[in-house]
Give the backbone structure.
Amino acid sequence: MLLQTEELNRLNRDLDSRSAVDRVRWASERYGKGLVASTSFGIQSAVMLHLMTRVVPDIPIVFVDTGYLFPETYRFARDLEQRLNLNLKKYHPLRSAGEQEALYGRLWEQGAEGLEKYNFINKVEPMNRALTELGAEAWMAGLRRSQASTRKHLKVIQIQNRLIKIHPIIDWSDRDIHQYLKKHGLPYHPLWEKNYVSVGDWHSSAPLTADTKPEETRFNGIKRECGLHELSGKIDFQI
């Protein structure tokens, strides 16, 4: 059942002062088998994967493979899946990378409109399909307020497309992330060593330089979000 505004506000007031582990535990107790998580196997993904599976070892974890990920990402995903014994659910776009380029060209080179269509086909639609097929009632994700201006007002719990969205580490700093990784002997994504602070598809991710902000290292600075974590209604394109 979808949370009403009054209850949502009350829960956020309560959970805002609690630890990330407490937030995961609350989500597990409340939603049980209806709770799923997602991962991109990005720069700091080991934190959320480790934190969640300590509390809910068998939680279904959706991994959307666009077909355009870095080789390092695939190896990182394999290593973490084995190390943490992840219950990974891999989803792909309905059209392969080759078919998309044949039909639409390189959408990521076609400005904001092309990126929007690209992200819907390769990320939003597969995630929506995953959430539906897994019978998800609530979805945990590792977003943090400090990551970008588009995320600074996010709350621990939000409603996205009539689904409960939970952000256990929403208030963590980069220092918190580093300390957690160090404490538990967990790795950053391999491209961290090459100055990447955010990693998605190879064609839309760039290393941080002295002239760029972290949120400008994705999608050639045109946008930060790929659509997976935007609170507005679903965008629909013909695939």
Q: What stands out?
A: Confidence is low (pLDDT under 50) at residues 231-235.
